[in-house]
Amino acid sequence: MYLIDASSAVALVAGASRGVGLGIALGLAEAGATVIVTGRSSEAGARTEGRPETVEDAARAVEAAGGRGHPYVCDHANEREVDGLVSWALRRFGRIDVAISSVWGGNEGFDGETFPDGSRWGAPFWRRPAGLMGRFQETGVRPALLLARAVAPAMVAARRGLIGFVSFDTGGGYLGDVFYDGAKHALNRLAFACAQELAPHGVTALALSPGHVATERVREAGEADAATETPLFVGRAVAALAADPAVARHAGRVVATADLARLYGFTDRDGGVPDRFRP
Description:
Layout: E1 10-14, H1 19-30, E2 34-39, H2 55-64, E3 68-73, H3 79-93, E4 98-101, H4 131-158, E5 161-166, H5 178-198, E6 203-209, H6 216-220, H7 231-242, E7 254-256, H8 257-264
Parallel strand pairs: 1-2, 1-4, 2-3, 4-5, 5-6, 6-7
């Protein structure tokens, strides 16, 4: 049986300086968890695209939400840095109960229509530079694999743990861009494959499919009114999964946040529950 006591849980959220990752950290913090928040942006160093958010800010937000926040600067596309992060966490806390990858660098330099290579979102694949496929894989799929690979030995030894990849459900049809669709499908398949190997050891792996989330980028683009949920809603979904003694029923699946809200009874910040998002 798998059950996390939220007040003593240790969670690692990769890509938590802002966006969905920060929302996940705050949802776990509401439950009283210790949350290691990671990312590349730091008060004392470089910041992604010059943005203001940092891992230190995220750790303070975790504390304010009722958890215990610990910032750690990490480039999750770098295997050595990820291994070092997990080694530090295990020395410091003795275990990792929940590990979530919310790392996604595919939108860096994207202005909403055009990517840094000059190609436009949704342009036919035969008119796209092939290099963008590699970038999406390297900044989304590879970080998820590196995190799962690093935390799995300790979880397998403990015979418990939850590993989640923030993705998007590709089962409902094409997502509108060949590289984005391919990367999300690869993440979902990675979660399925990891689940097959981890399930016999009491560890659950899954992919999480949020709706149209009101992240900082979405708000800055003036699209907040079109968003269906806040980052905190995704966090509450992860907290509910982490506390479920029957979480293994979701192993290998792509689970939608709205569906989880109806299953577990949590709401978004405004007290509502949105419909499942379909692009």
